[in-house]
Predict the structure.
Amino acid sequence: MKKTVQTLRSAKGQTPLVALTAYDFITARLADQAGVDLLLVGDSLGTTVLGYPNTVKVTLDMMIHHTAAVARAQPKALVVTDLPFGWATRPWGELLAGATRCLQEGGSEAVKIEGGKEIAGSVEKLVQSGIPVLGHIGLLPQQVHRYGGYRKFGKTGSEKESLLRDALALEEAGAFALVLEMVDAKTTALITQETKIPVIGIGSGKDCDGQILVSSDILGLTPGPIPKFAKRYDDLAARYQQAFSAYANDVRSGKE
Ligand code: KIV
């Protein structure tokens, strides 16, 4: 059965939701066959596929190009496009036009926006315009230059309260679910308990309504170290290398 925003919403407090990033047709098809609920065309595209040091250089055109590849897999999973750096705070007309392109040209079914209460007004207008929104709070990778690196959020009382206010503001604005990235486990549990929409964690503990991870991290394709919270389920980089070397040896030794 096709997963919709409504199916995901009604999963709150039920079986945990499984979400993964995907940036291409093949990964989308395989993850979908594995029964993933949500496929995020994340702007982690920049670091995992395009070789950038962070997500800041990812453009809307890149996101739409990769979303279209994922959508061509016709997954049962809900397809969500990440709005890249700079889009959340664009003037309303531009934001609406950009998000509309994700659905019309990319074929996604929702957009994800990084930010809390400060963008709740835009989230509300997008939802009212027929564009479902997945919220994203806690660590916001697009703000890497502001933080000067990555760290855990929601450890202090004031950050905990601020994150809860963000979550409630986004819920009130109509977001269908929330991603909590690198949030203290107790704060995640509190937000999960206080909200009516599914909370999907990444590096935020187990007490939430689902988990999302970057597919290249769990497949062992990410060059260099991966976040501590991401379990590596395979070492595909080594397997790719073996296959490529075997092919090169065959060709060089005169085999067809
Ligand atoms: O871009 C991305 O992959 C994300 C996930 C880490 C949630 O935003």
In short: The pocket of 3-methyl-2-oxobutanoic acid is lined by residues 21, 40, 42-44, 82, 179, 181, 202, 212, 214 (CB under 6 Å).
